[in-house]
Write a structure and sequence with these properties.
Elements (H helix, E strand, L loop, with lengths): L3 H19 L2 E4 L1 H7 L1 H38 L5 H54 L4 E4 L13 H9 L1
Parallel strand pairs: 1-2
Helix pairs in contact: 2-5, 3-4, 4-5
Length: 165
């Protein structure tokens, strides 16, 4: 009985090792491939054009708030209390306006980016499936889940090529 347990453990170890040796795995950096694609570059340019006016407004309000703060710090000691309170109120209003505009811009940009990702998902899935079949792989892992990969198993460049077709 004592001899059977080590023999059984050795057989199980051999069987699991042979199964793992047969599994073919590839790795891709989905984020890098997707955001380096021609579609993503065109999307970035469109996004920049569409939101440039909003970004300029946010920067203008931020600059106005900065100037009010500097004036308050520089001249505040020489102002009477009502002037100082009025200037501090203007500064707080600009900060609130900045925060509102910035959050609205960030939300709009995030929605557009998410829509781009949702639209690109079927194309990415199809390209990954092609890689799986072309390389006769059993599994493709995202690079974020891998500590090290041999360069020949990193299929990110091939995925990018497929996305750019």
């Amino acid at each position: 009985m004592l001899r059977i347990k080590p023999l059984l453990a050795a057989l199980l170890l051999l069987a699991s090792t042979s199964v793992m040796a047969e599994t073919r795995i590839g790795v891709v950096d989905l984020r890098q491939a997707l955001f380096s694609s021609n579609d993503a570059k065109a999307f970035s340019e469109t996004l920049q054009k569409d939101f440039s006016a909003d970004e300029a407004k946010v920067r203008d309000v931020q600059e106005e708030a900065r100037k009010l703060k500097e004036r308050l710090e520089k001249d505040g000691a020489m102002m009477n209390e009502s002037e100082r309170n009025q200037l501090a109120g203007e500064f707080q209003d600009k900060v609130k306006e900045f925060n509102f505009l910035k959050q609205r811009l960030d939300t709009a940009v995030a929605k557009r980016k998410q829509a781009f990702l949702d639209d690109a998902r079927p194309e990415v899935d199809a390209a990954v499936k092609e890689l799986l079949e072309e390389h006769d792989l059993d599994l493709i892992l995202p690079s974020e889940a891998v500590v090290y990969v041999k360069p020949e198993l990193n299929l990110t460049a091939e995925l990018l090529d497929k996305l750019n077709r």
